[in-house]
Amino acid sequence: MSEFNPHDPDARRALMSHHPLITNEFTTFTPSIPKVAGEVLDAVMLHKKSICFNALPQMGKTKICNSCIVALEEHPDYQDRLIIKISADPNSHESVMRTLVRSLGLAMPKIFNLDFVREDVLNMIEGRLTLIKGRHAVFFIDEMQRLTTDDYECLQFLQNELAIRNIGVTVIGFAQADIEKCVTNLRTRGRPELIIRFLNELVKLPLCDSEAWIRETLEYYDDSLFYPVDSECSYTRFFMPMAFDAGFRLANYSRPIFQALDEAKTAKKLPCLPTVCVLEMVRFILIRSRSNDSPEFVIDSRVLAGAINECQIENYAASFNKPSAGRDNK
């Protein structure tokens, strides 16, 4: 355990530039994660063919996807599941089969013969499942809205062929709200079987919609996220050591922080609060306030206004103003 003292200005200065909040390379826990992870674990337990979560851009889909993978990997009841993660090509230049080949660590053939490649993928999946004595593969597909009709046909082929080998496949998708266009396109092409197989259960990602969501998220900065990682110095204490030791906690300001965000959302006519802007606001509150650290520090209207301005919610609103598809995740 590190004996790092955040009150030591030299020690803190030496670590400041590498702090995850400064480099913006941190992952925090939000209340959305356990809700989605619960649905994913349920889908795997029930051997569902698919489920697809969707939301507007910058709502934390990829981080939630990665958290769900970790939850599945660490769950004692699912150690015999083969987990395969792929990210669809955002420009649809690379087919899902090519992406699968890379994800499975197979050599990419110079001449891409789909029949041969599909057989290699099938054999690799069956072989890996044999090693862990499993009969169930779980595909996590990020940016699922980018899949083409050909891609869905390939996934359908894999599911069918693996079923013949007594292997189940569950596809867990994470997509942007325009997954609706994919559904419409498949319907127009007369491919309802692909919709039923892969896009029949669309679920909105749960988002920041309450003070309670904010509070639960802020508590992690106060109590559970530490830097240095082997110390007992929370993110909040690192930036505001005097205030923290005097009782300051971000979570105590969950109401004014949520109110400021909600007012900005309403003013910009956004359908929901973008998760990236919420986390950016918290990040800037801590970073910008560190020079004002004192036992009497409080988050006032000036601090909130500055963080709202820097979290880029105005620029976000200028680009996106469309609700996500699917049923609500209660």
Provide the descriptors you would attach to this structure in a database record:
2 domains, 16 helices, Rossmann fold, five-stranded parallel sheet, elongated, alpha/beta, 330 residues, single chain
Please state how the strands of the largest beta sheet are arranged side by side.
2-3-4-1-5
Average per-residue pLDDT, rounded, comes to: 92
> Per the principal axes of the C-alpha atoms, what is the gross shape?
elongated
Alpha-carbon Rg, integer? 23 Å
Can you count the beta strands?
Answer: 5
Tell me the fraction of residues in β-strands, as a range. Answer: 5-15%
* Class from helix and strand fractions: alpha/beta
Q: Which residues form runs of ≥5 with pLDDT under 50?
A: none
Structure write-up:
The protein is built from 16 helices and 5 strands. By secondary structure, it is an alpha/beta fold. It folds into 2 domains: 9-28 and 208-319, no CATH class; 32-204, P-loop containing nucleotide triphosphate hydrolases (Rossmann fold), CATH 3.40.50. Strand 3 (136-142), helix 7 (149-164) and strand 4 (168-176) form a beta-alpha-beta unit. Helix 3 (32-45) packs across helix 4 (61-74) and helix 14 crosses helix 15 (301-310). The longest helix has 18 residues, at 114-131. The model has no long low-confidence stretch (mean pLDDT 92).
